[in-house]
Protein backbone atom coordinates (compact mmCIF):
# COMPACT_ATOMS: atom_id res chain seq x y z
CA UNK A 1 0.00 0.00 0.00
CA UNK A 2 1.29 3.43 -0.99
CA UNK A 3 1.64 6.03 1.73
CA UNK A 4 1.40 9.67 0.82
CA UNK A 5 2.24 12.96 2.41
CA UNK A 6 1.81 16.66 1.82
CA UNK A 7 4.46 19.34 2.15
CA UNK A 8 3.91 22.94 3.16
CA UNK A 9 6.90 24.54 1.46
CA UNK A 10 8.85 23.72 -1.67
CA UNK A 11 12.28 22.53 -0.61
CA UNK A 12 13.71 21.40 -3.96
CA UNK A 13 13.40 21.80 -7.70
CA UNK A 14 12.15 18.21 -7.83
CA UNK A 15 9.21 19.02 -5.51
CA UNK A 16 8.30 22.04 -7.62
CA UNK A 17 8.53 19.97 -10.80
CA UNK A 18 6.40 17.16 -9.36
CA UNK A 19 3.78 19.62 -8.13
CA UNK A 20 3.62 21.27 -11.55
CA UNK A 21 3.34 17.86 -13.17
CA UNK A 22 0.50 16.89 -10.83
CA UNK A 23 -1.47 20.06 -11.53
CA UNK A 24 -0.76 19.75 -15.26
CA UNK A 25 -2.26 16.24 -15.29
CA UNK A 26 -5.38 17.54 -13.55
CA UNK A 27 -5.60 20.46 -15.96
CA UNK A 28 -5.35 18.12 -18.92
CA UNK A 29 -8.12 15.89 -17.50
CA UNK A 30 -10.37 18.91 -16.94
CA UNK A 31 -9.85 20.23 -20.49
CA UNK A 32 -13.06 20.29 -22.48
CA UNK A 33 -15.46 20.05 -19.54
CA UNK A 34 -18.41 22.40 -19.94
CA UNK A 35 -17.89 25.36 -17.60
CA UNK A 36 -21.64 25.75 -17.22
CA UNK A 37 -21.65 22.57 -15.13
CA UNK A 38 -19.73 24.38 -12.36
CA UNK A 39 -20.63 27.39 -10.27
CA UNK A 40 -18.00 29.71 -8.82
CA UNK A 41 -17.03 28.63 -5.32
CA UNK A 42 -15.40 31.99 -4.67
CA UNK A 43 -16.73 34.63 -7.05
CA UNK A 44 -14.00 36.52 -8.95
CA UNK A 45 -11.33 34.90 -6.74
CA UNK A 46 -8.43 35.29 -9.20
CA UNK A 47 -9.86 38.21 -11.20
CA UNK A 48 -6.84 40.52 -11.48
CA UNK A 49 -8.89 43.57 -12.52
CA UNK A 50 -11.18 43.19 -9.51
CA UNK A 51 -8.25 42.65 -7.16
CA UNK A 52 -6.63 45.84 -8.45
CA UNK A 53 -9.91 47.71 -7.87
CA UNK A 54 -9.88 46.40 -4.29
CA UNK A 55 -6.29 47.61 -3.91
CA UNK A 56 -7.24 51.11 -5.11
CA UNK A 57 -10.25 51.22 -2.78
CA UNK A 58 -8.22 50.20 0.26
CA UNK A 59 -5.38 52.53 -0.70
CA UNK A 60 -7.83 55.45 -0.71
CA UNK A 61 -9.06 54.42 2.77
CA UNK A 62 -5.62 53.80 4.29
CA UNK A 63 -4.09 56.18 6.78
CA UNK A 64 -1.03 58.13 5.75
CA UNK A 65 1.01 56.25 8.38
CA UNK A 66 0.02 52.89 6.92
CA UNK A 67 0.77 54.07 3.39
CA UNK A 68 4.16 55.38 4.47
CA UNK A 69 5.07 52.02 6.02
CA UNK A 70 4.53 50.19 2.72
CA UNK A 71 5.30 52.89 0.17
CA UNK A 72 7.67 50.69 -1.85
CA UNK A 73 5.04 47.96 -2.18
CA UNK A 74 2.41 50.53 -3.19
CA UNK A 75 4.73 51.95 -5.87
CA UNK A 76 5.43 48.45 -7.17
CA UNK A 77 1.73 47.64 -7.42
CA UNK A 78 1.04 50.88 -9.26
CA UNK A 79 3.98 50.30 -11.61
CA UNK A 80 2.56 46.88 -12.53
CA UNK A 81 -0.94 48.24 -13.25
CA UNK A 82 -0.28 47.78 -16.98
CA UNK A 83 -0.58 44.02 -16.37
CA UNK A 84 -4.24 44.52 -15.44
CA UNK A 85 -4.86 46.10 -18.82
CA UNK A 86 -3.00 43.30 -20.61
CA UNK A 87 -5.01 40.72 -18.64
CA UNK A 88 -8.28 42.40 -19.66
CA UNK A 89 -7.19 42.50 -23.31
CA UNK A 90 -6.28 38.80 -23.30
CA UNK A 91 -9.74 37.92 -21.97
CA UNK A 92 -11.64 40.29 -24.26
CA UNK A 93 -9.61 39.20 -27.28
CA UNK A 94 -10.27 35.52 -26.61
CA UNK A 95 -6.62 34.63 -26.09
CA UNK A 96 -7.49 33.11 -22.73
CA UNK A 97 -9.98 30.25 -22.89
CA UNK A 98 -12.33 29.83 -19.96
CA UNK A 99 -12.06 26.33 -18.56
CA UNK A 100 -12.36 24.47 -15.29
CA UNK A 101 -9.40 25.27 -13.06
CA UNK A 102 -8.28 24.17 -9.60
CA UNK A 103 -7.84 27.73 -8.26
CA UNK A 104 -5.77 26.71 -5.24
CA UNK A 105 -2.57 25.26 -6.67
CA UNK A 106 -0.57 25.34 -3.47
CA UNK A 107 2.15 22.78 -2.90
CA UNK A 108 0.17 21.32 0.01
CA UNK A 109 -2.67 20.42 -2.34
CA UNK A 110 -0.55 17.69 -3.89
CA UNK A 111 -0.18 14.26 -2.33
CA UNK A 112 3.37 12.99 -2.75
CA UNK A 113 4.40 9.35 -2.56
CA UNK A 114 6.27 9.10 0.75
CA UNK A 115 9.02 6.93 -0.71
CA UNK A 116 9.52 8.13 -4.29
CA UNK A 117 8.51 11.78 -3.63
CA UNK A 118 6.57 11.72 -6.92
CA UNK A 119 3.23 13.52 -7.18
CA UNK A 120 0.39 11.03 -6.76
CA UNK A 121 -2.67 13.25 -7.07
CA UNK A 122 -4.17 16.68 -6.52
CA UNK A 123 -6.43 17.18 -3.51
CA UNK A 124 -8.73 19.96 -2.25
CA UNK A 125 -11.06 19.92 -5.22
CA UNK A 126 -13.71 22.15 -3.64
CA UNK A 127 -12.32 25.12 -5.58
CA UNK A 128 -12.81 23.60 -9.05
CA UNK A 129 -14.66 26.27 -11.01
CA UNK A 130 -14.54 28.23 -14.25
CA UNK A 131 -11.40 30.27 -14.72
CA UNK A 132 -8.31 30.63 -16.84
CA UNK A 133 -5.21 28.44 -16.88
CA UNK A 134 -3.12 31.51 -16.01
CA UNK A 135 -4.87 31.53 -12.58
CA UNK A 136 -3.52 28.09 -11.71
CA UNK A 137 -0.11 28.78 -13.21
CA UNK A 138 0.30 32.05 -11.31
CA UNK A 139 -0.87 30.54 -8.03
CA UNK A 140 1.51 27.60 -8.41
CA UNK A 141 4.46 29.89 -9.16
CA UNK A 142 3.57 31.99 -6.11
CA UNK A 143 3.51 28.98 -3.82
CA UNK A 144 6.75 27.57 -5.24
CA UNK A 145 8.81 30.75 -4.98
CA UNK A 146 7.45 32.34 -1.81
CA UNK A 147 9.64 31.68 1.23
CA UNK A 148 6.71 32.22 3.63
CA UNK A 149 3.23 30.84 4.17
CA UNK A 150 0.29 32.67 2.61
CA UNK A 151 -0.95 33.04 6.21
CA UNK A 152 2.16 35.07 7.12
CA UNK A 153 1.57 38.35 8.89
CA UNK A 154 3.94 41.30 8.95
CATH topology: Aminoglycoside 3'-phosphotransferase, Chain: A, domain 2
C-alpha geometry: globular
Q: Which CATH top level class fits?
A: Alpha Beta
Q: Element order, helices and strands?
A: EHHHHHEEEEH
CATH superfamily: Aminoglycoside phosphotransferase (APH), C-terminal lobe
The CA-CA distance between the termini, in Å, is 42 Å
In what range is the share of β-strand residues? 5-15%
Instruction: Please count the helical segments.
Output: 6
Largest sheet: 3 strands, antiparallel
- Poorly predicted runs of 5 or more residues: none
The assembly state of the depicted protein chains is single chain
- Structural class per helix/strand content? mainly alpha
CATH architecture descriptor name: Alpha-Beta Complex
The number of domains: 1
Strand order of the largest sheet: 1-3-4
Question: What radius of gyration results from the CA coordinates?
Answer: 18 Å
Give the averaged pLDDT, no decimals.
Answer: 93
Number of strands: 5
Percent helix: 40-55%
